[in-house]
Design a protein that fits this description.
- The strands form 5 sheets. A 6-stranded mixed beta sheet has the order 17-16-15-18-19-20, sandwiched between helices. A 5-stranded antiparallel beta sheet has the order 1-11-10-5-7. A 4-stranded antiparallel beta sheet has the order 2-4-8-6, with no helix packed on it.
- About 35% of the residues lie in helices and about 25% in strands.
- The chain has 3 domains: about 1-55; about 60-165, Immunoglobulin-like, CATH 2.60.40.10; about 240-435, Rossmann fold.
- α6 (about 260-275) links the parallel β15 and β16.
- It starts with a strand and ends with a helix.
- The chain is built from 12 helices and 20 strands.
- With about 450 residues, the protein is an alpha/beta fold.
- It is elongated, with a radius of gyration of 34 Å.
């Protein structure tokens, strides 16, 4: 409870008048009647404020209900509704808002309302998740004015709400409505594949231009008296593991999302494509909070993956690729595609080579490395000063060392992509299909 601005102004005015009349009395310019009037006004104001204080009634009975989704996507605004019911016996003026939350921002609040007795009003607003994980929303806050606007009463509704904030799965929801060929085109992935390149039989169909002679099913051809081809598809039931670096390497932020969030989105999209292809996807995090998910497949697989990694956060720990490899081979021996997502640098070469040697004994290893977009853009800046030249030279050297490192790793038999964060999902899907269709698994 606190006095309103109007009440404070009246009090200040009364005090100033009292100061003036006191000074006037000292100088013999004021009469007793003036002082008496000033005192009566003060007493009246006191009783008026006391009476107004008790007009507020039982504000704890005010009903505030809100309707919000139980799960949110990072960065995607969603609609929420708050219903306020005035249970008091008089009309009220109030200001309604949500309490601050480190994981959420609100748009359309606060809202000023005037409610008649027993009247209910719906307020529509939007909330946007800015950090992943689980968020607890405290009860809505309402500031209610007393009948004569002398007091503001703050009311916090006791009911709390919990929401889970996931990586942005809106692209997945969009892709789920499309066929696999459309999904690939939507992602911007360009594949060159001849018919019949796969190893598992899919179906028989009429011969078309471009089919090889070895695809022709001669027995069926003679039966139907027209050329019939066998169509094959990529092998299914293969395993893909995503190993995500939760250390300091992915804490960099070029835009609204950190490299870590870009990596999570790319993993989800690639896993969704792989699951739709009939493969199983597993997950492991390292250099921070360690989580492990055995390979999942089928329509519910992507939901299991979402619930596993939605609350992961990057840490300040150093990355140890060799330790990661040794732990992984102890838990999984079946031949799989291992996708390590990190930010690989020159000093990682020896450690990464040793780690990939350990993993490559039974698995195919792909290293997905994210480079800083801010450094790439720095090469486009004009050079006007010595500092600009030094900055350009150092940035160029750093990026050139990354290219050299990638070349060394490829020459050692490591599959690697070094890409910008916003292109990671396209590069991952492209490389997934390339490795899968090369029959290395």
């Amino acid at each position: 409870m606190r006095p309103t601005k109007q009440f404070v102004i009246v009090l200040i005015a009364w005090c100033l008048i009292g100061f003036v009349q006191g000074a006037a009395r000292v100088l013999g310019l004021a009469t007793e009647i003036f002082s008496l009037v000033w005192a009566v006004c003060g007493i009246t104001l006191f009783f008026w404020a006391a009476f107004d204080y008790f007009t507020i009634g039982k504000i704890k009975d005010l009903i505030i209900e809100r309707s919000i989704p139980t799960s949110l996507a990072l960065g995607a605004p969603v609609k929420a509704t708050m219903t306020i019911t005035n249970t008091l016996s008089r009309g009220i003026r109030l200001l309604v808002s949500e309490p601050p939350n480190p994981k959420l921002t609100f748009s359309g609040l606060p809202v000023k309302l005037i409610l008649e007795p027993q009247q209910a009003v719906d307020i529509d607003y939007s909330l946007t998740a800015i950090n992943r994980g689980e968020a607890t929303l405290k009860g809505a806050v309402a500031r209610i004015q007393s009948k004569y606007r002398l007091w503001d009463f703050t009311f916090s509704h006791p009911k709390t709400s919990k929401v889970k904030i996931y990586p942005n799965f809106a692209p997945i929801a969009h892709l789920s409505k499309l066929g696999i060929e459309q999904q690939i085109r939507q992602l911007g992935v360009h594949l060159s594949q001849k018919r019949g390149d796969g190893m598992e039989f899919k179906q028989l169909r009429e011969f078309t231009v471009g089919d090889s002679l070895r695809q022709i099913d001669w027995k069926t051809t003679s039966r139907y008296q027209k050329p019939i081809s066998r169509e094959y598809q990529d092998e299914q039931n293969q395993e893909v593991y995503f190993l995500l670096d939760c250390g300091r390497r992915l804490r960099h932020k070029d835009d609204e999302l950190s490299h870590f969030d870009h990596a999570l989105n790319a993993i989800l999209l690639t896993a969704y494509i792989a699951i739709r292809q009939g493969d199983a996807c597993g997950f492991s995090s390292y250099s921070g909070e360690e989580k492990w998910l055995n390979p999942v497949k089928g329509p519910s697989g992507i939901n299991v993956l979402l619930n596993t990694l939605y609350d992961l956060e990057s840490t300040k720990e150093n990355t140890d690729f060799l330790k990661l490899a040794e732990k992984f081979v102890k838990r999984n021996s079946r031949r799989s595609l291992i996708i390590i997502v990190s930010n690989v640098r020159e000093e990682d070469y020896e450690d990464l080579i040793q780690a990939t040697k350990v993993l490559s004994k039974n698995h195919i290893v792909l290293v997905a490395s994210l480079k800083e977009h801010s450094l790439v853009k720095q090469l486009d800046h004009d050079i006007n000063t010595v500092d600009d030249a030094l900055s350009y030279s150092e940035t160029h050297r750093y990026l050139q060392n990354r290219k050299t490192l990638a070349t060394k790793l490829r020459s050692s038999g490591v599959h690697i992509i070094d890409t910008l964060p916003n292109q990671l999902h396209v590069q991952l899907v492209t490389e997934y299909f390339r490795l899968k269709r090369s029959h290395l698994l």
